[in-house]
Amino acid sequence: MIARNSILSHHEMCENEFGRMLQAGMHFRPNGRTSIFLMSTRSNAPYNDCIENEGRVLIYEGHDAKRNSVEGDPKTHDQPSRLPSDALTENGKFHEAAQAYKRQNAPAELVRVYQKLYPGVWAYNGNFRLVDSWREHDGTRKVFKFRLELVADQDQHVLTDEELTHSRIIPSSVKVEVYKRDGGKCVKCGRKDNLHFDHDFPFSKGGTSILAANVRLLCARHNLEKSDKIE
Length: 231
Ligand SMILES: [Zn+2]
Prior knowledge:
Layout: E1 7-8, H1 10-16, E2 26-27, E3 35-40, E4 50-52, E5 57-61, H2 90-102, E6 109-118, E7 121-137, E8 142-151, H3 161-164, H4 172-181, E9 195-199, E10 215-219, H5 220-230
Parallel strand pairs: 3-6
Antiparallel strand pairs: 1-7, 2-3, 4-5, 5-8, 6-7, 7-8, 9-10
The structure holds zinc ion.
Residues 186, 188-189, 191, 218-219, 221-222 line the site of zinc ion.
């Protein structure tokens, strides 16, 4: 199992999802497996995602209409809940799942979230529970929003405040800044594979916001050595 905040190539990410070729942003229960969201949050990214509640909650924006299904720029059209055939889009499927959870008709949908940092460089953000969804007007059109709550990878329990101190979501701007600053290498040995974003600064010692200064790149070995020392 890949650890949260690991850095992956696109190929490694697809391998981790049973070889599925991941291109689109939203995948509702692909082949009956765990649902997947891909995030892209750089300044020129097509979607706005944001982190709330001190790194516990991710707000994910839905997908646009397919380019060939609308006239002109899909960004000027409402995000669709249904296809022209009337079948639900991924927006529609996740929206129904979130609303069913809110009505207490179903357990929360589990969603694994990956984030693109650069072309070919992805970070695994972990497992989340889909707890809410809504449509809102962004000034131009209606978009879907999905509220995701971080849960433990092993048994999907909602993280306690204690657990959150060393595993909250690292903002994308920080990830991109750290990756660039550390040159895509472990700061201790220079390895370029099996990298992780490491919080180099315990939250218990102050600060609730994650800054690039508190995060660094470590390879699997140095990341493990560090966690051994903590325990
Ligand atoms: Zn290393």
